[in-house]
Target: DUF559 domain-containing protein
Amino acid sequence: MTPRQLTSGLYRRLLHNVYADPGLEADHRLHAVAASLVMPSAAVLGGRSAAAWWGAPFASPADAVVVLVPEGSSWRGPRGIRAHRTPLAPSDIVSIDGTRVTGPLRTAWDVATLETVPDAVAMLDAMVRTGHLDLPTAVADLAQSHGRWRASRVEKVLPLVDGRSQSPPESWVRVACVRAGLPVPTPQFVVVEGGEFLGVVDLAWQEARVIVEYEGAYHFDGLQIVKDDARYARLVAAGWRVIRLGAADLRDMEAVVRRIREALRSTAPTV
Model:
C-alpha cells in the first residue's frame, strides 16, 4: 500500500500516519487502539480510554485518548492524545489483543483522579455493574494508598459508586442529589403496590414516595410515549410523585436538584 492510497480518501485518518478501514466503527476505542500504535513501548492506555475495555465505553470519538507514560518520559504524543506522567507498576498493565491498557483497579483509580466526580462515578458504576470492577477491592486498595497521588479525590468518588445505576444520566442525577445533601435514592427500584408490579424506576426515595425517571431518545418513539404515559399514570395513582427528566434538563443540574428537593419536602418535611 502506498502513501498516496492511504491519503486518497479510501481510508479514515485517525492520527498522524495512522489510518483505518472506513467500515470500522469510529468510536473512542478505535482511536485508542490507534494511539497505542504510536505510544512508547512502556506507555499504556489509561483513564476513560481504558474504561472502554472494562464496561464503561462512554468516551466519545472526539475525546482525547488518555495515555499514561512512565515518570521521566518526555513523550507528549500527537494531537488527539492526552499524555500523563505517572508511576506505573507491572501489575497495573494488561495486554488485550496486543493493546496495552491499565487493569480495572488502576483504571478505576485514574478515572477517579482525572475525571469530574459525576463522570467518574458514572464510569465506575458501569464498571461495577458489568462485573469488571469489584468495589470492595477498590475500597481496600484505597485504604492502603495513604499518600498516593490524589488519594483524597478517590475518597470522594468511591463512596458514591453504585453498580445498580443503568446509565450515566442516572449516575449524574444521583451524585448531584447526594452532594447537595439530599437523602440517597435507590437506583433501579422495583415498585410493587398491593401485590401488583408497577415497574422498575431509575431512582426512588421510597419513604417520600418520589421517583425520578430519565428519558433517553428511545422514550420519544410514539409507541414508547404511550407506554410511558400509562406506566406513570399507574405510579401516580398509587401515590408516587414522578419527576421526568430529559437530556435538556441535565444541562442545569442545580434546577434538577431543586425540583427533587421540592418534591421531597412536599412529602417528607424533614428534608
Observations:
- The chain has a mean pLDDT of 91.
- DSSP finds ten helices and eleven strands in the chain.
- The first helix runs from residue 3 to 10.
- The chain has two domains: 3-160, 168-267.
